[in-house]
Amino acid sequence: MPMNALYAQSGGVTPVINASAAGVIAAARMHPNHIGRVYVAKNGILGVLHEELIDTSVLTNTDLAQLKATPGGAFGSCRHKIKTEAELARILAVFKAWDIGYFFYNGGGDSADTCLKVSELAEAAGYPLLAIHVPKTIDNDLPHTDNSPGFGSVAKYVATSVREAGLDVRSMAASSTKVFILEVMGRHTGWIAAASGLAARSEGEPPHLILLPEVAVDEGRLLAAVENTVMRYGYCVIVAAEGVKDTHGTFLSEAGGKDAFGHVQLGGLAPYLAGLIKTHCGFKCHWSVADYLQRAARHTASATDLAQAIAVGEAAVKLAVAGQGGMMVTIERLGEVPYTWDIGAVPLGVVANCEKPLPAEFIAADGFGITAAARRYFAPLIAGEAPPPYIDGLPDYGTWVWSIEAPCLPIFKP
Amino acid sequence: MPMNALYAQSGGVTPVINASAAGVIAAARMHPNHIGRVYVAKNGILGVLHEELIDTSVLTNTDLAQLKATPGGAFGSCRHKIKTEAELARILAVFKAWDIGYFFYNGGGDSADTCLKVSELAEAAGYPLLAIHVPKTIDNDLPHTDNSPGFGSVAKYVATSVREAGLDVRSMAASSTKVFILEVMGRHTGWIAAASGLAARSEGEPPHLILLPEVAVDEGRLLAAVENTVMRYGYCVIVAAEGVKDTHGTFLSEAGGKDAFGHVQLGGLAPYLAGLIKTHCGFKCHWSVADYLQRAARHTASATDLAQAIAVGEAAVKLAVAGQGGMMVTIERLGEVPYTWDIGAVPLGVVANCEKPLPAEFIAADGFGITAAARRYFAPLIAGEAPPPYIDGLPDYGTWVWSIEAPCLPIFKP
């Protein structure tokens, strides 16, 4: 009897993480001699700890197609870092109880660490487990892969939004708003913010200034750049990564003042910058914080990103069937014009808890823009449209109510 | 010799205002016996005051097609309320100098007032001018028209974004963010916020709470509703209109505390609500301010909205050719299932400086949701997709550099 597989989603979700799930499930069904049932843990690793498992054999091909077209984490995800030996032991106990021989964990750098720990524990215990990490992060900060599924779609959303909002500001700047600030995600790296630079096709087009965590923000230099941009082009569009820091290493978002309750404003970077620029330059400012809108925007997903999200799921199954555990699937760039890519793999040990910053050669000399090399890297990742089906004027996303398998083990008390 | 026409864009721009411009220009070309050249004032009425006119005969049919697919105000718009007799007299002087017999003004309620004043002044001066207002506002607050071009696309964007972000929050709520707040535009009315209610197809789907300017926010009731929603569904998605007020009539955005410079935070409604909910309920909150992203999102325009934006432009020309000045074009709803509509017109005097609030029968009894009547009203306005062409993964929007006609008159000094 072949052993069963378990798939789980971990960390912040993306517009295409469910496409990876569909890739895993569909590919596993092609190998009935190797893989028995495919279970999914509800809410990521929490579903393993609490033994809340979903049997995916209920999913039809129509469900799998709809998964590919639905953003968010259809099975639930979580932010939970495994801290204790008891938790690790519990995971192994649940795997044993459900005869899990394959563990497909779909996440970013933190999750790769969990995947590695589970893999090592199983090996130490002599339990036959192939743990394979399926990469996913909008932040694009996973090392040893050319890019991470989820990023291309968010990059496409942000570049599209900047191009659109830029046209708005441009048309009103003569008598109204002169500065527009878009705050984007990316944690400690500037991949997303940098990719917004694709919106500009020629000199003077937005975004005019990109603020990256990789370049400390000197407020004097920034204000001078804003004034210079407004003088030159009549308006200034700024994209700011949430993780930007000042020259003392302090997050600018933490400088954003306190709210009515005296709490430091979280994610208050854009309003902080607007206040700074209004005060020192006198320009009317508008600002936007895209937050989850960027991370869930399946309606403007990149076709390249979608294809890669599916491919990494399928490749994880191929690795498993080939007996290669303790690995993360990677995306390899083979050529740039035309863009070609393939799937690879690296040992989990070199991936876990690593962050890949934006390379210095992607950042323009003044620190406020991107280079031609960056454009060459980003361009293919946002290529192609992959709209979801629409019903009644809105994307027809799936929402599933899962039935949870009856547990085998006693309740886990951490 | 037929007299010339002048078209201008006014106030906040929309995803489809350029489609109205294309409608006016294309329709005017069909009536060479009535209408000579079609000029456009750069940056709205400011372009009239400063005699900065663009001759649209340079526009090819390809340009007109691209105008229909490009957000923002391609000719520039402005926020400028005519205040003095000298300004009005200047407008008339420019019209005389350029032999303008037709004035097509594309704006909202404030602009309708300008259009009316210009029309009345011309009449009093015995100058033959047909002034026709082409409606446009994302706020949907123009009276005497079923809806306003621009609104349907913004409604579609907001409902799409709420459905997407809702899936994101839902998938993470077990261990992370439980409350998500999206701040949307709409000035003093709740049309945009209310339309987001279309995202929910069944009980319990986001948005769970809609905060409308038409319903004073009692913070205690709001906090109880948030707690109740999280208890029931595990998470809570809130859409808040920028113009919501508390029970004392104060804008909640002004209660949002001060920024680092001691200034009241503009548009700080979403972070204010997040702080309030975090403090009183203890839930992790995320928030987004869509700002110009919603107003410029041509990539997700409503096909209905686009068709109506073109139609009101064309209809303005038909009114002009029929000799009917001092009017605003309107959209009339003829039937709901199937949705059918036609074009009408009302005298400008009944439109200018009026705001149409969300009707009471569109607001659910608890003040936090929309009724079936509201859904019937909103549903057809977001129907149909009308994506722009894409190049290199991004919408291929037009950007024009206009050549300005040499002025005839001395420089205007207000």
From TrEMBL, chains A, B:
Substrate binds at residues 137-139, 185-187, 242, 292-295. Non-allosteric. Its EC number is 2.7.1.90. Coiled coil: none annotated. InterPro entries: ATP_PFK, PFKA, Phosphofructokinase_dom, PKF_sf, PPi-PFK. The record marks 110 as: Important for catalytic activity and substrate specificity. It catalyses: beta-D-fructose 6-phosphate + diphosphate = beta-D-fructose 1,6-bisphosphate + phosphate + H(+). Its cofactor is Mg(2+). Diphosphate binds at residue 12. It comes from the Bacteria. Pathway: Carbohydrate degradation; glycolysis; D-glyceraldehyde 3-phosphate and glycerone phosphate from D-glucose: step 3/4. It is found in: Cytoplasm. It holds the Pfam family PFK. Gene3D superfamilies: 3.40.50.450, Phosphofructokinase domain. Keywords: Cytoplasm, Glycolysis, Kinase, Magnesium, Metal-binding, Transferase. The record marks 136 as: Important for catalytic activity. The active site is at residue 139. NCBIfam families: PRK14072.1 (NF010675). Belongs to the phosphofructokinase type A (PFKA) family. PPi-dependent PFK group II subfamily. Clade 'B2' sub-subfamily. Homodimer. PANTHER family: ATP-DEPENDENT 6-PHOSPHOFRUCTOKINASE 1 (PTHR45770). This is Pyrophosphate--fructose 6-phosphate 1-phosphotransferase. It comes from Deefgea tanakiae.
